[in-house]
Amino acid sequence: MAHLFGAGHDSDAFLIAWTVPEMASTLLIEDAMALLMVPAFSHALARRAASRTGLTRREARAKDPVRLLVGSTLPRLVLFLAAVASVLVVAAPLVVGVLAPGLPDPQLAVQCTRLTALTVLSFGIAGYFSAALRAHRSFLPPAAIYVSYNVGIIGTMVALHALWGVRAAAAGVACGGLLMVLVQLPAFIRNVGFGPPRTRGASRSQRDRDRPTLIAFGMIAPVIFFAVFRQSQVLVERFLAASLPPGAISHLNYAQKVAQMPMVLSLMICTVTFPVVAQAMAGGDREKARRRVEQDLALASLAVLMGTALVIGYAPQIIQVLFERGAFTHQDTLATASVMRVYAVGLLGHCLVGALSRPFFSAARPTWFPALAMSAGLLVNIVAGAFAVRWWGTYGIAGANAAGITTTAALLLVGIGSRIIAIHVRQVAVSLGRLSVAAAAACATGWIAGPMIPDPLLSAALGCLLVPAMFGACGTAIRALEVTALPTLITQRFRNAR
User: Fold this and answer.
1) In this structure, are 185 and 333 located in the same domain?
2) C-beta separation of 171 from 156 below 8 A
3) What's the pLDDT tens digit per position in 357-390?
4) 152 in the same domain as 47
5) Which of 87, 229, 331, 402 is the residue whose CA sits 20 to 30 A from 196?
6) How many domains are there within the chain?
7) Last residue of a domain, one of 218, 242, 274
8) Are 184 and 327 members of one domain?
9) Residues 426 and 492 both lie in one domain
10) The pLDDT of residue 51
């Protein structure tokens, strides 16, 4: 994107259209669908194991809670999402007008939005498949969905950009969404399968077998509100940036995507262990769930803070290596790197929100606390962003994002102990403080050392060694247990996950 379209009107128009798949990804793949369906499938798997005793293979297949769950949810989901995608295609001008009211020429954004709206259906199916497979401890096909997605985007964009311009990127998003479904389909059929649809005249025993489904759908509202409020941070960002000079939306987007990579990497730990926590909660073993959550928080926080130190310390070098070619100028590099440093201040908050929200939705009962905490953070984001954008432009928008997500993380950390799992909140907070000190020292070291080497690639590569070394040395000096006991933590974490 940076090479072909730089940071200007075309890239801004595409990013407005990309808001649709970003929201769809949050709702239908990452947050809402996973938080809803992974526990539902985990409960169904637990019931399958308890109900197979004394049944023939044919009887077990006919009464399989997992297949009954699929049969009662997937057809309805497909019909609903197809209807939503159709509405978005028709209402694309209205959508663009709401998302970016200050955009000078919205027509290109409208055309791109009509293409990206198709992902609502494909992402929903892909997210459903992913949740089911992860509950079955099958992680490779779900891990391949974004590889497929990027192959579709990049391949279509490279092949058609000369003919369609930035519309080729939007068409690639639609193509990539289809590939996300196809790459998981064989594994879904093999591990899960398609169950019979639930009939209207189902008996009481049939309804009892479908109870996990009813419990899951009882959680829809709080999960969806949480996911929508979380993704609305991007809507606030683009709404406020639409009135700034061309390229502001693109600078914010490039900065956000690169800055969030440490958070994405750190949350892989929680993604792998989420089904384990859900099954422990379903079995009533809250002590086991507490230990897993605390260990997840320790490892995820360590990973994200080390990554934060690297992102802030070497921001200009990272952006220059990744983007500065073609239509992306050196001025774009400086603007994006500066914004990225502000964004990175909120990375720990993003990581904690992702890690702490999962236990809330592991229980087989709805809970509104994460949605309320997220709404409080979103309110901080909106108010602070509206105030700060007048004086600091994109920096004010990025700073408001960091303030809002940190507010939500603090509320979730305080609230999880009394509502879901009795983790040691004070101990976790002290650990986070020590890791933050180590991250600050590593960040300062990288900020000073980075410009000393003129070649940006060599500088960033050495930073990947220098920053972790300083982080580890400082963490050891201040006796941060997550640093000194890291090998033991990793070994224990993944032995337990198996």
Assistant:
1) no
2) yes
3) 877 776 656 678 899 999 999 999 999 999 999 8
4) yes
5) 87
6) 2
7) 218
8) no
9) yes
10) 62
Token pair, residue 97, equals 């007008």
Residue type, 7: A
| Of 218, 238, 260, the domain-final residue | 218
Tokens of 358: 């999962």
- Over residues 2-17, the mean pLDDT reads 88
Q: Which two tokens stand for residue 135?
A: 């509950």
Cα 163-169-171 angle, rounded to 5 deg: 85
Note whether 263 and 197 are same-domain residues.
no
- Tracing tokens 């070497």 back to the chain, one arrives at 314
Q: Which domain holds residue 112?
A: 1-218
Shared-domain flag, residues 260 and 321? yes
Q: Which residues of 308-334 are buried (b: 16+ CB within 10 A; e: fewer)?
A: bbbbbbbbbbbbbbbbbeebbeeebbb
Average pLDDT of the segment spanning 162-181: 94
How far are the Cα atoms of 36, 204, 210 from residue 64, in angstroms, in the given order?
A: 20, 16, 10
Whether residue 258 sits in one domain with residue 199? no
Tell me the average pLDDT across 42-58. Answer: 65
Same domain, 154 and 268: no
Q: Residue 207: what pLDDT?
A: 47
